[in-house]
């Protein structure tokens, strides 16, 4: 490959799939020798070790009495322009069209350099349109004025083209996981510590408990499953739906079988004691959490929406069911959990799928290729 590049990365650094991908990408690019500059409102949460070639530039948003709203977008654009100029950045890779692509376009004008803008769509921009169609033109502008645009699944490319109709080709670049972290580990001690009996199957759900994640469906499906086999449900994460989910757990008399673990790191340890993952969202452009589970050998049941069927292969490493079809979800779960040979096969296939289609080395290589294509001579 060519010369080492100077790359700026902007994302929402808080917990969430897009922040995870942007941070992991920065770390892996740094390991390949590139100089990475995170330009974000707080330090990315997965940036948990020192890298000599990763820099962090904090966007400070001041709240002046004269402004009704704090000017985050302008502050971000100014910081981007400052870093682009001072550090001679060649690439600004932003995650989300709004506001980050728009900020990058403004920053490029302010800096007066030919920094190339790469925008990755994660789906939330498109979802937002369901609430606020007045943003369509802004999203289209962000996409069209970027030098290169990627989306995390074919489904998201299709959805963006349909809803936004940009005059710009969007390339699918799948998400990835760090396979050094996400793999089966020995964490069997957790079973005993959580009070999971040797004959119990473990079902896991991980999300930010937003309404689109339909965590209540997870609980309802588990209620049916646990009527037929001994099982425990691990609910990992926290968010707006937590109160109603807790209420449902109590109403269904499941409190001794559902473990509410809240937000957790080191998820590979929880996946390694799990037999099945449920991802029953009504919107999901990719479903990074399914990929993380699969890498640890956990088959998944997901819903037939967005990018989920591109990650979970029906009848191979898991099952795909319609949103809200609790009956079918429970039936497929029982089918898989009561057939050890099939379960073992799905578990092997899950690990193999991750290696085939979502290896970090290949995906980071795809992003690198895009950067070099935009910078001929580098
Ligand atoms: O799903 C969320 O609530 C978080 C959201 C985000 O912007 O971080 O996740 C989106 O990006 C992830 C990484 O590409 C995808 O795995 C998720 O499927 C996607 N979420 C939605 O499309 C709802």
**Shape summary:** globular
Average of pLDDT:
95
The CATH architecture designation of the largest domain is 3-Layer(aba) Sandwich
Order of helices and strands: EHEEHEHEHHEHEHEHEHEHEHEHEHHH
Strand coverage percent? 15-25%
Main sheet characteristics: 7 strands, parallel
Cα-to-Cα separation, first versus last residue: 9 Å
Radius of gyration from CA coordinates:
22 Å
Quickly count the domains: 2
CATH homologous superfamily annotation of the largest domain:
Glycogen Phosphorylase B
Structural class: alpha/beta
Binned, the helix content reads 40-55%
Strand segment count:
13
* CATH fold assignment of the largest domain: Rossmann fold
Instruction: Please tally the helical runs, counting DSSP H or I stretches of 4 or more residues.
Output: 15
> Which residues form runs of ≥5 with pLDDT under 50?
none
| CATH level 1 name of the largest domain | Alpha Beta
Bound compounds, please? ligand GMT
Strand order across the largest sheet: 3-2-1-4-5-6-7
Protein name: N-acetyl-alpha-D-glucosaminyl L-malate synthase
InterPro entries: Glyco_trans_1, Glyco_trans_4-like_N, Glycosyltransferase_grp1, Thiol_BshA
GO molecular function: glycosyltransferase activity
Organism: Heyndrickxia shackletonii
Structure explained in plain terms:
Pfam families: Glyco_transf_4, Glycos_transf_1. The protein is an alpha/beta fold and 378 residues long. The protein folds into two domains: 6-176 and 359-374, Glycogen Phosphorylase B (Rossmann fold); 189-357, Glycogen Phosphorylase B (Rossmann fold), CATH 3.40.50.2000. The protein contains 15 helices and 13 strands. The protein has a seven-stranded parallel beta sheet with strand order 3-2-1-4-5-6-7, sandwiched between helices. Strands 10-9-8-11-12-13 form a six-stranded parallel beta sheet, with helices on both faces. Helix 2 crosses helix 3, helix 3 (97-111) crosses helix 5 and helix 8 crosses helix 13 (326-337). The structure holds ligand GMT.
């Amino acid at each position: 490959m060519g010369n080492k590049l100077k790359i700026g990365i902007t994302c929402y650094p808080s917990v969430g799939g897009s922040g995870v991908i942007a941070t992991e990408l920065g770390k892996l690019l740094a390991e390949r020798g590139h100089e990475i500059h995170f330009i974000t409102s707080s330090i990315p949460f997965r940036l948990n070790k020192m890298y000599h070639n990763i820099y962090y530039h904090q966007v400070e948003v001041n709240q002046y009495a004269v402004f009704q709203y704090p000017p985050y977008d302008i502050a971000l654009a100014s910081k981007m322009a400052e870093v682009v100029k001072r550090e001679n950045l060649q690439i600004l890779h932003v995650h989300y069209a709004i506001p980050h692509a728009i900020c990058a376009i403004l920053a490029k004008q302010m800096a007066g350099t030919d920094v190339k803008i790469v925008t990755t769509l994660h789906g939330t921009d498109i979802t937002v349109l369901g609430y606020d169609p007045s943003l369509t033109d802004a999203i289209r502008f962000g996409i069209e004025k970027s030098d290169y645009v990627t989306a995390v699944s074919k489904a998201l490319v299709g959805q963006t083209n349909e809803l936004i109709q940009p005059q710009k080709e969007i390339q699918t670049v799948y998400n990835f996981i760090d396979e050094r972290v996400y793999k089966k580990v020995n964490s069997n001690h957790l079973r005993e510590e959580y009070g999971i009996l040797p004959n119990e199957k473990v079902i896991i759900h991980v999300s930010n408990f937003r309404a689109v994640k339909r965590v209540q469906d997870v609980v309802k499906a588990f209620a049916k499953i646990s009527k037929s086999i001994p099982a425990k449900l691990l609910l990992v994460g926290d968010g707006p739906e937590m109160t109603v989910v807790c209420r449902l757990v109590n109403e269904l008399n499941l409190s001794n079988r559902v473990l509410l673990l809240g937000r957790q790191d080191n998820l590979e340890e929880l996946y390694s004691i799990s037999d099945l993952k449920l991802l029953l969202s009504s919107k999901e452009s990719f479903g990074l959490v399914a990929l993380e589970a699969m890498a640890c050998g956990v088959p998944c049941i997901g819903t037939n929406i967005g990018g989920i069927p591109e990650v979970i292969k029906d009848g191979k490493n898991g099952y795909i069911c319609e949103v809200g079809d609790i009956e079918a979800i429970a039936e497929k779960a029982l089918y898989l959990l009561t057939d050890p040979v099939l379960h073992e096969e799905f578990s092997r296939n899950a690990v193999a799928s991750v290696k085939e289609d979502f290896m970090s080395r290949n995906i980071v290589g795809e992003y690198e290729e895009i950067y070099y294509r935009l910078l001929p001579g580098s």
